[in-house]
Amino acid sequence: YANDIWIDPTNTNRVVISGTYTWRSVDGGVTFTKISNGYIQTTQPHPDDHHLVPVANYDGSTHKGLYVTTDGGIFYAPDITVASTSSGWTNCDQTPKTTQFYSVAGDSGTGAIIGGTQDNGTQAFQLGTTSASWTFGGDGGYTFIDPTDPNYVYSEYIGLQIERSTAGAFTRPGGDPSIWAGENDQNHTGRLWDTYYGQANFIAPIQPDPNNPLILFGGGLSLWKSANPKDGIPHWTALSNNLGGDPYTPNDYISTIAVATGHSNIIWLGLNNGTVAMTTNGTTASPTWNVISGPNNASDPLPNRMVTKILVDPNDTSGNTVYCCFGGFTSNNLWKTTNGGGNWASVTGTGGGILPQVPIRALAIKPHTASTLYVGTEIGIFSTSNGATTWTTSGDGPNDATIYDLEYMNNSSVLLAGTHGRGVWVLSHNSTVSQVRCSPNTSEGGKTTHVIVTLTSPAPAGGLLVKITTSGPVTATTAIRVPAGLSTYTFSATTVPVSTQADGTITGTVGATQQSGTVTVTPPTIKSFYPAAASVVGGSKPTTYVVLSSKAPAGGMPVQITCSGDPISVPSDPVVVPAGTTFTTFKTTTVPVSSTVHGTLTATLGSQVVNTNLTVSPPYPTNLSIVPNTVQGSSATLVQGTVTLVASTPPAGVTVHLSSDTPSACSVPATLLVKGTHGTFTLSQHTVATPTTVTITATYNGVSVTGTLTVNP
């Protein structure tokens, strides 16, 4: 690794060697001069230089070019005899993707992909693009994105130095993003001590609980757990120690961690020395560990080689189906148990479909399809669709590349492959979105429209996740999953109230493919317009309703009101239906009248005109009181009657007709002119022989009221 030697065929005293940097000797190797000094994305060669290749026609005089392959790509010195740490180099990186990824993770909702790399930091890029953002330097390790909140992204620097971003995959964390150091007290309570003491692999595993992203595990000499990785200073607790039987040596370091889907208490660990251990009470403070296999264990059914990957089959609801991958250039590097480790079988294939005798570093099981698996090996990706009976290089991924990681994007059937030298590869199923349409495609704001998404072919097993975005006056969910086997899927979107017609767009995205549908959103119309009472007495202020066909937009919906008929008046300014509501009211003003008048109210909204009728009537009597109500007929006592009207009269007043049912006992004027709401008249009592009750009647506008007076002898 990084230790090539090239001797100039035209001058054996000129020797170039590669290491962390490139060096040149002109005295046959007695002394060397450093001639490169680059880093990430520099013209000078990147550190860790692997291979030295001269140009095909190298002659030491006219043609003196030399290529250097590094952790950061290919660099070229046109004249290797003069190249130095300050000049003479060219960065050849153009379209080839040569980054060495240790890990990869993705989020289907945002399309973000992130991965840790050898000497090129942690890099993030958008699904469907080929350029990455450098979010953290040095060597990047394991990565993952919180499936419930993609703003939280976790990555790693060497030796289990766990970092966190709280602003998404593309944001370089400010300040110190490390979350392993524990509380800042005298004893550093809650520190991840294996990180502090350097007791972890160069690229050490970190693993979230698939059932709870608020639980994060890290593997060093011990298994460490944080139940608050989102806190400002997460707290870490050790759950295991020295499971491999080689006390405090790198042989005992944890190389892989797996947690069963649906069973947070089932945790599996693999170690550098081949030890495999598991617990079924992993949620307790001190789990009990069962060492399944290992070189220092009495039971040793599995190979004593580095455990590169353990995966609990998420399709097995019992959590008992587990796969173990091993390193080593030999056979039987993939094993399976279906009873929680009680029995194991090699599943490297049969007949002509056997996996090659190379290390297996990665494993993925297709969501909802337990029989379809992918393994990442030293020489490429192999797959099976029959439960590992046979394996094939189906062309699904890169060949002649070391595969370090295989991960499905969160909530997706898109498979990511992190290669060590050929970048990140994406395997998405052929099905993608072909059409998005709205039905109806014209809708008032605040109403529901149906969105029909059509795929190019039926969705694969596990369904197909389609990202949904909107623009304009329409809202919808951020993603849908088309069920397996279906080619169309319908969901609802809600239009936003508008004051003028506008188009809303709904876009469905699968990978780099997008399709959009449009709904034309129209403003509301007047659904109804009416007074609370169709007939009112002049002088009253009746309530009138304006009802819209749908909700008013932001800022409200103004409706202009006009009227005809002298006794009626309405507000001069438009009445406004408040935003988010469908109606408003206003007061219509009427004046007193002496005879019935019919008026018309008009509401205008845009080009729409709606009329309603209002009848204004004269006031009518509501009461007749007589004081006193008992009198001697022969007395001179003043007796008065008061007629009360429901409302005020016109200024000229109205004439109320009066009558007595016994004029011989009490007589009244024939009429009474009432101005305002009350009118008073004088009754004339007469001598009677016996007590007599007289009824006085006041009549106007077809309404009569009565009062009584008792006349005594």
Would you kindly provide a written description of the structure presented here, covering whatever features stand out?
With 713 residues, the protein is mainly beta. It contains 1 helix and 61 strands. The strands form 16 sheets. The chain has a 5-stranded mixed sheet with strand order 35-42-41-37-39, with no helix packed on it. Strands 44-52-51-46-48 form a 5-stranded mixed sheet, with no helix packed on it. It has a 5-stranded mixed sheet with strand order 54-61-60-56-58, with no helix packed on it. A hairpin with a 4-residue loop joins strand 32 and strand 33. The mean pLDDT is 92.
In short:
With 713 residues, the protein is mainly beta. The chain contains 1 helix and 61 strands.
Please report the number of helical segments.
1
Percent helix, as a range, is under 10%
Given the helix and strand composition, which structural class is it? mainly beta
> What is the residue-mean pLDDT, rounded to a whole number?
92
Which percent range describes the beta-strand content? 35-45%
* Low-confidence runs: none
Largest sheet: 5 strands, mixed
Task: Kindly report how far apart the N and C termini lie.
Answer: 138 Å
Number of strands: 61
> Which descriptor suits the 3D outline?
elongated
- For the largest sheet, list the strands in their spatial order: 35-42-41-37-39
Rg computed from alpha carbons, rounded to a whole number of angstroms: 45 Å
Please describe the topology of this protein.
Layout: E1 5-7, E2 15-18, E3 22-25, E4 33-34, E5 49-54, E6 66-70, E7 73-77, E8 90-91, E9 105-107, E10 112-116, E11 122-126, E12 133-136, E13 144-145, E14 153-157, E15 161-165, H1 193-196, E16 206-209, E17 212-219, E18 223-226, E19 237-238, E20 254-260, E21 263-271, E22 276-279, E23 290-293, E24 307-312, E25 322-326, E26 334-337, E27 345-346, E28 360-365, E29 373-377, E30 380-384, E31 403-408, E32 415-419, E33 424-427, E34 433-439, E35 442-444, E36 448-455, E37 464-471, E38 474-475, E39 479-482, E40 488-495, E41 502-510, E42 513-522, E43 526-531, E44 535-537, E45 543-548, E46 557-564, E47 568-569, E48 575-577, E49 583-587, E50 589-590, E51 597-605, E52 608-617, E53 621-627, E54 630-632, E55 639-645, E56 654-660, E57 666-667, E58 671-674, E59 678-685, E60 692-700, E61 703-712
Parallel strand pairs: 35-42, 44-52, 54-61
Antiparallel strand pairs: 1-2, 2-3, 3-4, 5-6, 6-7, 7-8, 9-10, 10-11, 11-12, 13-14, 14-15, 16-17, 17-18, 18-19, 20-21, 21-22, 22-23, 24-25, 25-26, 26-27, 28-29, 29-30, 31-32, 32-33, 34-36, 36-40, 37-39, 37-41, 38-40, 41-42, 43-45, 45-49, 46-48, 46-51, 47-50, 51-52, 53-55, 55-59, 56-58, 56-60, ...
